[in-house]
Hints:
By secondary structure, this protein is of the alpha+beta class. It folds into 2 domains: about 1-80 and about 135-225, no CATH class; about 225-410, C8orf32 fold (Roll). The chain is built from 9 helices and 14 strands. An 8-stranded antiparallel beta sheet has the order 2-1-7-8-6-5-4-3. It is globular.
Amino acid sequence: MKKLSIFLLTMGLAVSLSSCKFVENLVNGNNQNNTNNNTNTNTPTTVITGSVDTNTTPTTIIPTTITESSIEPSDSTLIPDITTTGDVSTSTDEIEETDIYYAKNYLSTKGNKYVNLYNAIFNGLNSVYLSNKTITDTKNVNVTYTNPDNSTTTKTETYYVAAQIEFYKQYNVESDAAYAILKCVVLDHPEFYFVNSLSTVSSTKIGDKLDSQTINVFCSDEYYKGDTRASYNQKLNEYKTNIDNLITNPLSDKHIIKIVHDYIINNGAYAFEDDGVTPSTKNQAHNLMGLVIDKKGVCESYSELFKYLLNQYNIPSIIVSGTGINSAGSGGHAWNYVNIDNKYYGFDLTWDDPVSNSGDKLEYDYFAKGKNSDFLSSHVPSITDDFTQKLNFLYSLPELATLSKLPVEFI
């Protein structure tokens, strides 16, 4: 007899500090609303508590627990350790880049099956990106929230299903790895802005043996309508065309990088709440469409748009998340590493677009910085060997170039 169960995974992003907080929370649970009639009613209930953003305002309700029924794989040794912090760089500054997709390159060092699943997830999400069809398939998930007074509220929330990919039987990949690979795809392809931070995995068993598992990738509510995505994608294409028009002659990668850097900063601003101090908590402010559609975004929007545009010009780059440290304090942040002449340099477009009393400014303080600069002391990547945290980063970063900074005049 087959038994079906669902467990839930989420990549949560939250903003707290003026430096743009970039937080990754991992919450595991299961969705009892999607079990079939053959599910054993004695299945244990699992409650996992997620991270709480203590800097949120008192009126904010924070999701902290997911309570669902589960049938978990019993053999944890089957889960491949693909999220360890392995060394994928060379022993020198020079890095041979065969593909602009750094996360995919990393997976290729672990085995073809991981790349094959990456490709399957990419194809599923790319079909949504290219389609103007409205997403109609939905799933319900029970989520328990902790209120400001520490009471709890449980809600059944409906999510639009963007893609479903079977990974256990087809690719011999376990659920933890499938979730990590989904995150790799999204990091490599910021154009999948519609992907919700929440995803679930459906599992079936024959007797006591796990038979199949499918990852359900959800679409954020703002983007489930086909005409909305089509309109936004057109705006993204127009944004890129505007940059194309600035590249009037064949230019080097260095020229293009500076043109993209300057255009993003000159045509956008940091997104705040109405108080003008608190970073925006709007979902769109945290993906590349914030700067494209609203002309405002937080650090994720800057780093994702920069990554997307460099992809279009076949320039390798990486979205980096971690802790930003400046005179205002420290907090979660996102920035980029960019490959220039086979060496990586740090870029932070958010901090090169500072807010000041004299209006928006364009700066180059965080432009093409090497390891002998102060960049690494102010930008600390979230890399850890702790299994409960290592989905914060899926691969080790390349070492930055020894040069402290490439001068802007190098253009």
